[in-house]
Amino acid sequence: MFDRYNERILRILSEEGRISNAELAERVGLSPSACLRRVQELERSEVIKGYRAVLNPTAMGVGFTAYIAVGLSDHTKNSQEAFQEAIVRSEEVIECHNITGSFEYLLRVETEDLAAYKVFHTDVLGTLPQVNSITTYVVMDSPKNARP
To answer: Residue 58 pLDDT more than 90?
Structure first.
């Protein structure tokens, strides 16, 4: 399924999701109909899960980004599920990853400013009974950020 054409299609679409099928076909070296069939198959098989706009955080009012390592006090399935449910409901959490190592979760949080982050830290994370430790890593710059 991943021949050189599909690999090129995926690379181009990951960088330019709004490219026309005609332009994509030309750049990949396929006819427009063959290219469209491949893209549709990649979508059907969920290799391509969707398309999205890449937003400018500053223009959206986001002035503070942090990664937060969260340790849980209890490692049961119920505890993890309760924590995850609370995090999914939180608008400030952009990403939540269950990880290995010293902590159970790594969160990417975006807020308007440090004061708004403090409210999130205190009123959301600080009130979850599953949370045992919170370690915040403030993003000062992102010289490479390929993720939308």
So the answer is: no
Question: Nearest CA to 110 among 100, 101, 120?
Answer: 120
64-138 folds as Alpha-Beta Plaits (3.30.70)
In the chain, residues under CATH classification 1.10.10.10 are 4-44
State the DSSP string of the chain.
---HHHHHHHHHHHH-TT--HHHHHHHHTS-HHHHHHHHHHHHHTTSS----PPP-TTTTT--EEEEEEEEES--SHHHHHHHHHHHHT-TTEEEEEE-SSS-SEEEEEEESSHHHHHHHHHHTGGG-TTEEEEEEEE----S-----
Identify the CATH number of the domain defined by range 4-44: 1.10.10.10
Residue 78 Cα to chain centre, angstroms: 24
Whole-model pTM?
Answer: 0.80
